[in-house]
Amino acid sequence: MAYKTIFTALTDPALVATTMEQAEALARAHDAHLDVLCLGVDRTQTGYYYAGANALILQETIARAEKEAEEIEAQVRARLEPSGLRWSSDTGVSQLADIGRHVAARARFSDLAVLAKPYGQNRGAELEPVVESAMFEGLAPVLVVPGPGCTVTNPKKVVIGWNESREALVAVRAALPLIQKAETVHVVIIDPPTHGPSRSDPGGQLSQYLARHGARVEIDVLSKTLPRVSDVLIRHAKDVSADLVIMGAYGHSRFREAILGGATRYMLEQSGLSVFMAH
């Protein structure tokens, strides 16, 4: 198993270098085609302007988005034309409310989407729907790049947040090409259930499955000693010097995640590591 089509969507010229560095590295490592979407985003919300606003004002926001898309594509071409990779790029302009449709249409035919971290300082409002649409509508696993210096191709140590959920299993299967290359894979189980078929051997079936794929697996059973499960996972990832965290995305409804937060959102906000997610 390998990634043969890697997709990335770029909406911010300031994040092009970091995101493309990761996407290029994976495309080179897996001999994959790199598909790049360069989007200029009209970030004005529906109803932002009063009725009858001057059409020139509305046109100005579109023109600004078009210019941004051209700037992003220029950076992409400057990087990829001499790279020797197989690649393609496309440009477009989208309103913030419609960005998910454009991203999902391309992500659905890729093996992996490499996207910028959606939360943090100087991160645009469009980055969250880009990640969500790639996973939910595009049905693609997503590798979230937290910032410069976090490029992952052959991770030495991988942490899997394992809770026996469907989402976690989907993420593990999608991440197998990375898991197989790791020196150590830590299956992390926090407060395992005291009832059920796995109570006496938490993580045992998963570790067996991964071992048959050539992974070197360790099972780490932890107590929830911090307020959030994601806090414990982040701390343990630091303790073992992990390069990558793999986890299922959005165990609850998207509405609940958006209102109350959740392990997925908190992990993306707080972790300085690359996070591999699938739903």
Features:
alpha/beta, globular, 2 domains, ten-stranded mixed β-sheet, Rossmann fold, 279 residues, 23% strand
Overview in brief:
This protein has 279 residues and is an alpha/beta fold. It is built from ten helices and ten strands.
Q: What does this protein structure show overall?
A:
The protein is of the alpha/beta class. It has 2 domains: 5-145, HUPs (Rossmann fold); 157-278, HUPs (Rossmann fold). The protein has 10 helices and 10 strands. Strands 3-2-1-4-5-10-9-6-7-8 form a 10-stranded mixed β-sheet, with helices on both faces. Helix 1 packs across helix 2 (55-80), helix 3 (99-107) packs across helix 4 and helix 8 packs across helix 10. The chain is globular, with a radius of gyration of 20 Å. The mean pLDDT is 89.
> Radius of gyration, Cα only, in angstroms?
20 Å
Q: Percent of residues in beta strands?
A: 15-25%
The CATH homology group name of the largest domain? HUPs
Distance separating the two termini: 19 Å
Give, in order, the helices and strands.
EHEHEHEHEEHHEHEHEHHE
Q: What's the story with the biggest beta sheet?
A: 10 strands, mixed
C-alpha geometry? globular
CATH topology of the largest domain: Rossmann fold
**Structural class from helices and strands?**
alpha/beta
CATH architecture of the largest domain: 3-Layer(aba) Sandwich
Give the helix tally: 10
Helix content: 25-40%
Number of strands: 10
Spatial strand sequence of the major β-sheet: 3-2-1-4-5-10-9-6-7-8
